[in-house]
Design goal:
The complex is a heterodimer of chains A (about 280) and B (about 160). With about 280 residues, chain A is α/β, with parallel strands linked by helices. Chain A is about 40% helix and about 10% strand. In chain A, strands 1, 2, 3, 4, 5 and 6 form a six-stranded mixed beta sheet that branches. Chain B is built from five helices and four strands; from the N terminus they run H-E-H-E-H-E-H-E-H. The chains are: A alpha/beta (about 280), B alpha/beta (about 160).
Chain lengths: ~280, ~160
């Protein structure tokens, strides 16, 4: 039985025997456009599970819907999750945002189906089969290229990139880990980050967004895919992830009992930059 | 000259760097106080802002300082193990490690951002540190008006 067939059978079984009240997956097509596109698919009727698909074009991180109250009210929610999304779910469990009484995982990989898993089983699968999920090679190469520039060149590069930001916050909406009910950018007493879609406000938003994901980001790439302006957000996420891994051995999303990287500490943390 | 004009003005020959030091009240602020009562002279370029703890010094404050045109920023607090609140400086240390990489990567020269531990007994260290940082920031020059982190007047 191939991946999609197994996925459809399990999803329909979950809905029909009442173990799940909602399945979130992907289907082909979108609002009247090409069939190669994959869009989120919310299923409550087992008969509709036949349209479920999973392949490499499915880039949206479906765990991001779990912060919505209307979704949370329909527990159990089954989520189709490739490895980066599984990591998001395990991290959300570590941060007490999801539990086994909210979510069940329909674990998929490249061409394989891993079955219906709970959080602990998902973490075990990740450690066993996907322990070496690294920062994408092209992101690492681009980070190295920019890091080799002078400070002025880097400033010029990011000025041009951030200038395009319209502050639509699609990056935030696409990210399952941006679950604050009131984001720092909306706090205006005082106004921490300028709301104007220009200049230093764009800089502060993009940098602080990356900082708030440091040691948490599972590098699923949904934010960059969602950005209508093509800002290379993954460079910032990748850099923060690289540093969190280098300095603090951060491996977010592999252990539902892990402590947050920023928010915990070790007395012997390396800090050679502090005089 | 209005503030935006002043910020955008070409650096004059006599460039004096503006440093902002975010310090914790229990150690570095007391250390700065000791530097004063001990009559150590140090560069007058630093504006000291006192916080209860380095754990309270949000990276947004550093960004705010650069937005407003600080040429350099120092964040300083108690040595590891000495935090008045037990662990505030340990938490701060983790944040700094990430923040400094992000700021450097996005175009803020590493010569503009400093972190240190200065205890209440280290008046000499504080005075020397401010002198050293002032010299380095002076060498780096004014924080470029074109930097993406910098607030600019509407055009």
């Amino acid at each position: 039985m191939d991946l999609n067939q197994a996925l459809r059978t399990d999803a329909a079984a979950l809905l029909s025997d009442g173990r799940a009240r909602l399945v979130i997956g992907y289907r082909a097509g979108g609002a009247g456009d090409d069939a190669a596109r994959r869009t989120p698919f919310f299923i409550t009727d087992p008969a509709r599970c036949d349209a479920l698909v999973y392949d490499a074009s499915c880039r949206q991180n479906l765990a991001s819907y779990l912060r919505k109250p209307e979704v949370r009210a329909r527990s159990l929610v089954a989520v189709v999750a490739p490895p980066p999304v599984m990591r998001s779910l395990v991290l959300l469990a570590a941060e007490a945002q999801v539990t086994d009484s909210l979510v069940v995982v329909l674990a998929v990989g490249e061409g394989v189906y891993h079955g219906v898993l709970d959080i602990a089983q998902t973490a075990a699968l990740l450690r066993e089969k996907y322990a070496d999920l690294a920062i994408p090679a092209e992101v690492v190469r681009e980070i190295e290229r920019i890091a080799a520039m002078t400070a002025e060149e880097r400033a010029a590069f990011w000025t041009a990139e951030f200038a395009r930001c319209t502050r639509c916050y699609a990056c935030r909406a696409a990210c399952p880990l941006c679950y604050c009910t009131r984001c720092i950018v909306e706090k205006n007493v005082p106004q921490w980050i300028s709301m104007a879609a220009a200049g230093h406000g764009n800089y502060a938003w993009n940098v602080i967004r990356a900082f708030h994901l440091a040691g948490r980001c599972t590098l699923c790439g949904a934010c960059e895919a969602a950005c209508p302006q093509g800002i290379p957000i993954m460079l910032l996420n990748g850099l923060a992830a690289e540093e969190a891994a280098r300095a603090f051995d951060a491996r977010p999303g592999y252990d539902p009992a892990e402590k947050p990287v920023i928010g915990s500490f070790k007395p012997d943390d390396k800090a050679d930059f502090i005089k | 000259m209005t503030e935006p004009e002043r910020q955008l003005a070409k650096p004059s020959a006599a460039f004096e760097p503006r440093l902002v030091a975010f310090v914790c009240t229990w150690c570095t602020y007391a250390g700065a106080d000791l530097a004063g009562t001990s009559r150590f002279s140090y560069a007058p370029n630093v504006r000291i802002i006192r916080f209860p703890c380095t754990g309270r010094i949000d990276p947004l404050l550093v960004l705010k300082a650069f937005e407003g045109g600080a040429d350099g920023v120092l964040v300083s607090g108690c040595h590891p193990g000495d935090c008045h609140y037990t662990s505030g400086n340990y938490h701060a240390r983790r944040r700094w490690a990430i923040v400094r990489r992000l700021l450097e990567f996005t175009g803020i020269d590493s010569r503009r951002l400093y972190f240190s531990w200065v205890s209440a007994a280290e008046g000499r260290k504080f005075a020397d540190l401010i002198n050293e940082i002032t010299a380095k920031v002076r060498a780096a020059g004014p924080f470029e008006p074109a930097n993406p982190a910098r607030r600019r007047p509407w055009t």
